[in-house]
Amino acid sequence: MTDLYELLEVERDASADEIKKSYRRIARDCHPDANPDNPEAESRFKEISAAYEVLSDPAKRERYDRFGSTNGFDMSDPFGSGAGGLGDLFDSFFGMNNPFGGGGRQRGPSGPPRGEDLDTQAVLEFTDAVFGCQCDVDVRTAVRCDDCESTGARSGSAPETCPQCQGSGHVRTVAQTVLGQIVRSGTCSACGGQGQIIADPCPTCSGAGRLIEERTYTVDVPAGVDDGSTLKLAGRGAVGGRGGPAGDLYVRLRVKPHKVFERRKDDLVRELRIELTQAVLGTTIELETLDGTEELKIPRGTEHGKVFRLKGKGVPHLDGRGRGDLLTVIGIDIPSKLEFEEEDLLRRLAEVRGDKVTPVDEGFFSRVKTAFKN
Ligand SMILES: [Zn+2]
Ligand SMILES: [Zn+2]
Known about the structure:
Blueprint: H1 4-7, H2 16-30, H3 39-55, H4 58-67, H5 86-94, E1 118-124, H6 126-131, E2 133-144, E3 160-161, E4 170-177, E5 180-187, E6 196-197, E7 210-221, E8 230-233, E9 249-255, E10 262-264, E11 267-275, H7 276-281, E12 283-289, E13 292-298, E14 307-310, E15 326-333, H8 340-353, H9 362-373
Parallel strand pairs: 1-9, 11-15
Antiparallel strand pairs: 2-7, 3-6, 4-5, 8-9, 10-11, 12-13, 14-15
Helix pairs in contact: 2-3, 3-5
Bound molecules: zinc ion (2 copies).
One zinc ion binds at residues 145, 147-148, 152, 202, 204-205, 209.
């Protein structure tokens, strides 16, 4: 571990002025302008510049003194972040062992990339969505290449360390600016940051380490999903190249409508048509529910639009705790065509009740005559 004071050839208790003088002296000696085509001098110049940047700043020097070569800079390191900041400068000569490199800065090769998230759609029957089911979905996805065991290298060969970045996945560029040297760290273009290159690619996957295939997955659909729900299947997406982890699979659910039932959140709603006489006199109906038939008592004098609630006969809650209700909305069928006897009875009823109704018209008599003829 290079000591910054040693680099600048000063004692640990050197004054700011002494450090400055010493830095200037060494910098003159090894400045790139004075040493063209001398990489040794250039790298020494970079080192002392970085050292001077620390030791000339009282706060940074104090921190360096306190933490030395141990990793004393954390996420909140005020000068370890930002392009061209101290972090990058340290990178340039401490390399991977940068003692100040804590925090969120990426160290080392990025490794094989994670696979893509995929999405697909499944169409469910209404009752399957209510009670849950298993369904198959077809996905065009990326799967492991078994021929190269996902390495991307031809069987018998292996990926090689990237010569451009020596396997670090990063390259550094040094720029001279009015502020001094700025060292930037970027992703290596030769290996895409992975630190390895494939010299002899696997012929099956052309070096990708994965293959595109159609796959059918069986999905467990929990009870209570609705149209528009999305299921996330972690790790069932495309596998990453060269052994990278798989992405996730999102299954968007479409639910077919039911001819009787409608969803209102976790309640089911259905209409029930009853006869005028049933509404007036009351009745008991064998009601179709999703759980089979239930007896529904319609009391005397039930009005049109009345709602009967059957507790717990609705859609199961997605959290598995309980179910919604079944709401039955009553519709009363008013007969528009009456047999002679029906009309006669109704008119007598109106008369008894004293209800004012439209009198019998000629059309009625003609219908009556017709009825008698038959
Ligand atoms: Zn392969
Ligand atoms: Zn590289």
